UniProtKB/TrEMBL annotation:
It comes from Planifilum fimeticola. Residues 14-161 form the Activator of Hsp90 ATPase homologue 1/2-like C-terminal domain. This is Uncharacterized protein YndB with AHSA1/START domain. Belongs to the AHA1 family.
Length: 164
């Protein structure tokens, strides 16, 4: 039985698995597509290893800056990537989401990359870590919003992959 709080997003890309995996694990790729459409991504720190961190900022056209981070847990190239994702300050300290006082502090993300006939299916599973009941409900209620946001981000990835 599936967990009602877990968010699952799957998308197939017209690109080999190694390239799709690299797009998620190389800052030179990530900065071109990661994040909401219209925001500029800057990589402050990138350390791809278990316990390592990807610290980045996203700047809106109006100049607002949001910080985020991944803390890597597992890296199995090119098939699996596991990390926690959270909002942060510029030093990498975890902070509350600016849009909700009940958004979970950390989301555990498990990404799997499966190749079939030169195309790669990415399956992303997200689940709050050590969340309160209220935080779990907030995350569950936001599933549609998060899916829409990731649809835009993954559209940017598909476009980027078609050019590299």
């Amino acid at each position: 039985m599936s967990n009602p709080y877990e968010l699952v997003i799957a998308r197939t890309f017209d690109a080999p698995r190694e390239l799709v995996f690299k797009a998620f694990t190389d800052p030179e790729h990530l900065k071109h597509w990661w994040g909401p459409k219209g925001l500029t991504i800057s990589v402050a720190k990138f350390d791809l290893r278990p316990g390592g961190i990807f610290l980045y900022s996203q700047q809106s056209p109006g100049g607002e800056v949001l910080w985020g981070k991944f803390v890597y847990r597992e890296i199995v190239e090119p098939e699996r990537l596991v990390y926690t994702n959270s909002f942060s300050d510029e030093e990498g300290n975890t902070v509350r989401a600016p849009f909700s006082p009940t958004w979970p502090l950390e989301i555990l993300n498990t990404l799997t990359f499966a190749e079939h006939g030169g195309k790669t299916t990415l399956t992303m599973r997200g689940m709050p870590v050590s969340a309160t009941e209220e935080e779990l409900e907030t995350f569950k209620e936001a599933h549609d919003m998060v899916r829409k946001g990731f649809a835009g981000t993954l559209d940017q990835l598909a476009d980027y992959l078609s050019k590299v």
